[in-house]
Amino acid sequence: MNRINSICRNFLCGASSDYKNPPNINWDICCMTKDEGGLGIKEAKIWNKALLGKYVWWLANKKDHFWVRWVNHVYMKDTSWTDYMASSDCSWSLKKIVLIMSIFKQAYVSNNWLNSSKEYSVKAGYDWLRGPQPKVEWSYVCWNHLNLPKTSFICWEFMHKRLPTRDRLLRMGCPIDPVCSTCCQAPETHSHLVYECAYAIECFKLLHCRQHICLRVQELVHWFSTVRRPTKLQKRFIGACHVAVIYWLWRIRNEAKMNAVVRRPEVLVSQILHDMKARVLALNNAPPLPRDQAWFQNL
Ligand SMILES: [Zn+2]
To answer: Measured between alpha carbons, how far is 9 from 2 in angstroms, rounded to an integer?
Structure first.
């Protein structure tokens, strides 16, 4: 299971399967759901336990299955599944299932799973093993379906402060100039790159004029719910433009570093709006509401 996790982790950071260096983002974070700030990847060790929980469910419910009848007849006999301890002559696989049995005993007994009319599902077992996790408020903006996947991924790294900005590279020991390559005026940090850099402020100001949005993702979430009542499509469009700007700020920073070229903010914002409108028209099968049509014409 560790090997499977390692191959998945290396695939995510574009490395070969035997890559040994630590990943850019903790694997535990990647394995959280998108609502919790992760990528929704299944953690192989926990998923394996949840799958084995299905056998425990069969044994606990005396499922009419050949394997269950055999285990009951040969090993468990009249012992209750909650009290059964694996004997030394048990197979390796049964010993593992008995181990999982002791983990799931609490869920089946204390959480009344056995009294429920529902069948055990691997997803329910997986969620129970992971336990309740706090949610993040920005996942709606980050994983909006109008976003391009590459923009969502960069936004996700940004929200976790895991982009390889110059301050992080310096902390890792890379001999690098700390000054922002886009504006050449201040040290480059996550906060500077998106919220404080003169270039970023100008980009968001142009978007602000066109769409009336605020600067930070957290403020955007607040704005969606309280300040105004945009339609669902408008919310998604604004969120997607915001995420696209974060992606492009990172890309422009890289272009400035490699080629010493920075495109004008008005060109960038016009391009983002043009691309997003084309994407909305391509993805939206239903005709837009009259309110949306008027809003789009004013962009
Ligand atoms: Zn800057």
So the answer is: 10
